[in-house]
Amino acid sequence: MGMKLKIGLLASGNGSNLQAIIDRSEQGLLDARVVCVVTNRADAFALERARRHGIPAIHLSHRDFSSREEYDASLVKLLREHGVQLVVLAGFMRIITRVLLEAFPAAVMNIHPALLPSFPGLDAQRQALEHGAKLAGCTVHFVDEGTDTGPIIIQSAVPILPDDTVESLSHRILLREHQSYSRAIQLYALGRLAIQGRRVIITGEHALGESSLSNPAVSQ
Ligand code: GAR
C-alpha cells in the first residue's frame, strides 16, 4: 500500500474518471492510489465520490485568488502536503500554469474527449459531431503549457454512429476514457513511460502490427 504511486486528482464535475481510477485501485489493478481530490467547484460530485472512499476532498475556489499563478501555487502546496507524485487532471476545467508544471515536471496528465490534435478545447464531442468526423475517441497526454497539446500517451478511437447525439457519443467515449486513463496511470506507475520530444515511448509494449481501426469497416 505504502509503495503505491500517490495520485493527486483535480476535477471540476461529475468525477466518473475519478471513480474508475478509485475502483481499479481498490480492486488491486493499479500500483497507484488517489491520496487527495481537489476541485475548483464546491458542487463538484467528484468531492462526494472521494469522501465515500475516505479520500481527502478539498474545494479550492479560484474566486479566492487574483491570478492563475497564485491559484496554482496554492494547489502545489496542497498536493505536496499529501505527498503527491503524479497529478491527474480528470475533467478539471481550468487552464493550469507553469507554476504547477514546474513543481511536477513530466508528472501532470490530462484526458481529453477527442483524438488530439483534432478538437482541442471545450465541447470536443460536439466539435467532432458537427465536423462530421467518423471516428471520435479520447487521448491521455502529459500536460504542457498549451491547451491539450502535450505528448500523447494513449489514444482510443470510438465510432461516431449515424444517430449519435452529443450525449450518446460522450457516454461511449467516457467508457473508453475510464479504461485508457487507468492504463496510462499504470504504465506511469511501472516506470514504463519515457518522453522523447513530442513522443511518449512505452517500454515493453507490443506493436499492433498490421491491424487497423476503420469506421465504416473497410474490406478489400
Ligand atoms: C471527460 O469527458 C473528460 O475527458 C472531459 O470532461 C469529462 C469529465 O468527466 N475533459 C475535458 O473536456 C477537458 N478539456 P468526469 O468528471 O465524469 O470524469
What are the main properties of this structure?
220 residues; alpha/beta; Rossmann fold; 7-stranded mixed sheet; two-stranded antiparallel ribbon; 9 strands; binds glycinamide ribonucleotide
Describe this structure in words.
By secondary structure, this protein is α/β, with parallel strands linked by helices. It has two domains: 1-105, 3-Layer(aba) Sandwich (Rossmann fold), CATH 3.40.50; 111-205, Formyl transferase, N-terminal domain (Rossmann fold), CATH 3.40.50. Helices cover 32% and strands 23% of the residues. It is built from six helices and nine strands, in the order E-H-E-H-E-H-E-H-E-H-E-E-H-E-E. The chain has helices at 16-26, 45-52, 68-81, 98-103, 124-131, 166-189; strands at residues 5-11, 32-39, 57-59, 86-89, 108-112, 135-142, 152-159, 193-196, 199-202. It has a seven-stranded mixed β-sheet with strand order 3-2-1-4-5-6-7. It has a two-stranded antiparallel ribbon with strand order 8-9. Strand 4, helix 4 (98-103) and strand 5 (108-112) form a beta-alpha-beta unit. Helix 1 (16-26) packs across helix 6 (166-189). It is globular, with a radius of gyration of 17 Å. The relative contact order is 0.14. The mean pLDDT is 95. Glycinamide ribonucleotide binds at residues 11, 13-17, 90-91, 111-113, 124, 174, 177.
